[in-house]
Design brief:
single chain, mainly alpha, Rna Polymerase Sigma Factor, Chain: A, globular
Length: 196
């Protein structure tokens, strides 16, 4: 098993990761995690979104590791990946804000506790249905993380998986749930607007 330090050249790490070397991936993560987070935070100004972008950057590096041998400048590749994720995130957040603003303007005069309770109940149903659509292993990891507050290491030990595998499955599960809920939330918002 090879060991890498924080001074190991990025090109060496990329070449090793391209050969499925998890130790090299961990070294790359340790070496650049703070920088990636800082760049993301500079743009999105949100701890949660910055953490999510940081996770997405490293997961996408691992997922597309077979192509890393073709990368000439690993640092440029890494930061280009950060900026692409930041750009997508900002677009998504901007769209969410516009949708929520339009929804709030339309429903402001009709808002009361009963309506909010019905909406919350419907939203919970959509979320639960989204979770039920996940493959069994992703559903279990999602529930252990989001509903029981377990960390990657604890889930990994329980399910006999590496923390990186847990993180990868959880990220995919969260994206699936989010995508499902967003699609159905727009539908729910449209129906509510039609009712009022």
């Amino acid at each position: 098993m090879s060991t890498y330090s924080s001074s190991t050249d990025s090109a060496v790490l990329f070449a090793a990761i391209a050969q499925n070397d998890e130790t090299a991936f961990e070294a790359l993560f340790r070496k650049y995690r703070s920088n990636v987070y800082a760049v993301a935070f500079k743009w999105v100004k949100s701890v949660y979104l910055s953490e999510e972008i940081t996770q997405d950057v490293f997961i996408s590096i691992w997922v597309s590791r077979a192509r890393l041998n073709m990368v000439k400048d690993p640092q440029a590749y890494l930061y280009a990946s950060v900026f692409n994720k930041v750009s997508r995130c900002m677009k998504k957040e901007s769209n969410k804000a516009r949708i929520m603003q339009a929804y709030q303007q339309q429903t402001k005069e009709y808002s009361n506790e009963t309506d909010e309770s019905i909406c919350a109940n419907d939203t919970n149903k959509v979320i639960n249905h989204a979770i039920d659509q996940l493959p069994a292993h992703k559903k279990r990891i999602f529930k252990l993380s989001r509903q029981h507050g377990q960390g990657y290491d604890a889930i990994g030990q329980l399910l006999q998986l590496s923390p990186h595998t847990v993180k990868s499955h959880l990220t995919k599960a969260v994206k699936s749930v989010r995508h499902y809920v967003q699609g159905h939330s727009l539908l729910l918002a449209s129906l509510l607007l039609l009712l009022f």
